[in-house]
Amino acid sequence: MGISRNATARWEGDLKSGKGSLSTPQSGLLDGARYGFNTRFGDEKGTNPEELIAAAHAGCFTMALAAKLTEAGHPPESVDTRAEVDLSMEGGPTLSAIRLKTRAKVPGIDDQKFRAIADDAKQNCPVSKALSAVPISLEAELLG
Protein backbone atom coordinates (compact mmCIF):
# COMPACT_ATOMS: atom_id res chain seq x y z
CA MET A 1 0.00 0.00 0.00
CA GLY A 2 1.37 3.42 -0.96
CA ILE A 3 0.98 6.88 0.44
CA SER A 4 -1.00 9.53 -1.40
CA ARG A 5 -0.62 13.28 -0.88
CA ASN A 6 -2.50 16.08 -2.60
CA ALA A 7 -2.58 19.78 -3.25
CA THR A 8 -5.06 22.01 -5.04
CA ALA A 9 -4.69 24.99 -7.35
CA ARG A 10 -7.22 27.60 -8.42
CA TRP A 11 -6.72 30.22 -11.12
CA GLU A 12 -8.93 33.19 -12.00
CA GLY A 13 -8.46 35.36 -15.07
CA ASP A 14 -5.94 35.50 -17.89
CA LEU A 15 -2.27 34.56 -17.59
CA LYS A 16 -0.69 37.96 -16.95
CA SER A 17 -3.33 39.74 -14.85
CA GLY A 18 -4.98 36.68 -13.33
CA LYS A 19 -4.27 35.27 -9.92
CA GLY A 20 -4.02 31.87 -8.38
CA SER A 21 -3.97 30.13 -5.05
CA LEU A 22 -2.45 26.88 -3.86
CA SER A 23 -3.57 24.80 -0.89
CA THR A 24 -2.46 21.62 0.83
CA PRO A 25 -5.65 20.39 2.50
CA GLN A 26 -4.10 17.39 4.27
CA SER A 27 -1.46 19.33 6.20
CA GLY A 28 -3.04 22.77 6.02
CA LEU A 29 0.45 24.24 5.59
CA LEU A 30 -0.58 26.08 2.43
CA ASP A 31 -4.05 27.55 2.62
CA GLY A 32 -4.71 29.76 -0.35
CA ALA A 33 -1.03 30.63 -0.88
CA ARG A 34 -0.91 33.28 -3.55
CA TYR A 35 0.77 32.77 -6.91
CA GLY A 36 0.58 34.47 -10.27
CA PHE A 37 2.50 35.63 -13.31
CA ASN A 38 4.60 38.13 -11.33
CA THR A 39 5.37 35.71 -8.48
CA ARG A 40 6.63 33.22 -11.05
CA PHE A 41 8.33 35.42 -13.62
CA GLY A 42 8.98 38.53 -11.53
CA ASP A 43 9.72 39.52 -7.97
CA GLU A 44 6.22 39.91 -6.55
CA LYS A 45 5.66 38.32 -3.13
CA GLY A 46 4.01 34.91 -3.33
CA THR A 47 5.04 31.42 -4.31
CA ASN A 48 5.50 29.62 -7.62
CA PRO A 49 5.76 26.05 -8.88
CA GLU A 50 9.56 26.14 -9.17
CA GLU A 51 9.99 27.24 -5.55
CA LEU A 52 7.70 24.43 -4.42
CA ILE A 53 9.62 21.90 -6.52
CA ALA A 54 12.85 23.17 -4.95
CA ALA A 55 11.38 22.74 -1.46
CA ALA A 56 10.14 19.23 -2.25
CA HIS A 57 13.48 18.22 -3.75
CA ALA A 58 15.56 19.66 -0.89
CA GLY A 59 13.35 17.90 1.66
CA CYS A 60 13.31 14.55 -0.13
CA PHE A 61 17.05 14.49 -0.85
CA THR A 62 17.94 15.53 2.71
CA MET A 63 15.82 12.74 4.21
CA ALA A 64 17.23 10.20 1.74
CA LEU A 65 20.79 11.25 2.56
CA ALA A 66 20.15 10.98 6.31
CA ALA A 67 18.64 7.51 5.81
CA LYS A 68 21.51 6.26 3.65
CA LEU A 69 24.15 7.66 6.02
CA THR A 70 22.39 5.94 8.94
CA GLU A 71 22.19 2.64 6.99
CA ALA A 72 25.96 2.92 6.38
CA GLY A 73 26.54 3.24 10.14
CA HIS A 74 27.11 7.01 10.12
CA PRO A 75 23.97 8.77 11.39
CA PRO A 76 24.37 12.49 10.68
CA GLU A 77 24.35 15.20 13.30
CA SER A 78 22.89 17.55 10.71
CA VAL A 79 22.22 17.88 6.98
CA ASP A 80 21.35 21.21 5.36
CA THR A 81 20.40 21.33 1.69
CA ARG A 82 19.55 24.12 -0.73
CA ALA A 83 17.85 23.21 -4.00
CA GLU A 84 17.89 25.69 -6.86
CA VAL A 85 15.48 25.16 -9.76
CA ASP A 86 16.06 27.05 -13.02
CA LEU A 87 13.22 27.93 -15.36
CA SER A 88 14.39 28.59 -18.92
CA MET A 89 12.25 30.64 -21.28
CA GLU A 90 13.99 29.47 -24.47
CA GLY A 91 11.51 27.59 -26.64
CA GLY A 92 8.81 28.07 -24.01
CA PRO A 93 9.05 27.69 -20.23
CA THR A 94 10.88 24.56 -19.15
CA LEU A 95 12.78 23.41 -16.07
CA SER A 96 16.37 23.52 -17.31
CA ALA A 97 18.51 22.65 -14.28
CA ILE A 98 18.40 21.71 -10.62
CA ARG A 99 21.33 22.21 -8.29
CA LEU A 100 21.43 20.51 -4.91
CA LYS A 101 23.92 22.00 -2.45
CA THR A 102 24.26 20.07 0.78
CA ARG A 103 26.40 20.46 3.87
CA ALA A 104 26.45 17.76 6.50
CA LYS A 105 28.07 17.06 9.81
CA VAL A 106 28.62 13.31 9.94
CA PRO A 107 30.91 11.81 12.59
CA GLY A 108 33.30 9.03 11.60
CA ILE A 109 32.99 9.17 7.81
CA ASP A 110 35.59 10.13 5.23
CA ASP A 111 34.91 12.59 2.42
CA GLN A 112 34.99 9.99 -0.39
CA LYS A 113 32.43 7.72 1.30
CA PHE A 114 30.24 10.72 2.17
CA ARG A 115 30.23 11.94 -1.44
CA ALA A 116 29.40 8.45 -2.74
CA ILE A 117 26.45 8.16 -0.35
CA ALA A 118 25.29 11.69 -1.23
CA ASP A 119 25.40 10.87 -4.94
CA ASP A 120 23.39 7.70 -4.31
CA ALA A 121 20.78 9.74 -2.42
CA LYS A 122 20.63 12.23 -5.30
CA GLN A 123 20.05 9.45 -7.83
CA ASN A 124 17.51 7.53 -5.78
CA CYS A 125 15.34 9.90 -3.76
CA PRO A 126 11.77 9.75 -5.14
CA VAL A 127 11.72 13.42 -6.17
CA SER A 128 15.03 13.07 -8.07
CA LYS A 129 13.58 10.08 -9.89
CA ALA A 130 10.43 12.03 -10.77
CA LEU A 131 12.52 14.94 -12.05
CA SER A 132 14.98 12.77 -13.99
CA ALA A 133 14.26 14.64 -17.26
CA VAL A 134 15.98 17.70 -15.74
CA PRO A 135 19.78 17.78 -15.28
CA ILE A 136 20.48 17.56 -11.53
CA SER A 137 23.86 18.48 -10.09
CA LEU A 138 25.11 18.00 -6.54
CA GLU A 139 27.64 19.84 -4.41
CA ALA A 140 28.21 17.88 -1.22
CA GLU A 141 30.35 19.29 1.58
CA LEU A 142 31.32 17.34 4.68
CA LEU A 143 31.72 19.65 7.65
CA GLY A 144 34.55 19.02 10.09
UniProtKB/TrEMBL annotation:
Annotated region (Disordered), positions in chain: 1-27
PANTHER family for the chain: OSMOTICALLY INDUCIBLE FAMILY PROTEIN (PTHR42830:SF1)
Keywords: Oxidoreductase, Peroxidase
Pfam families assigned: OsmC
EC number, UniProt record: 1.11.1.29
Enzyme class: oxidoreductase
GO molecular function: peroxidase activity
Identification of the protein by name: OsmC family protein
Domain of life of the source: Bacteria
SUPFAM superfamilies: OsmC-like
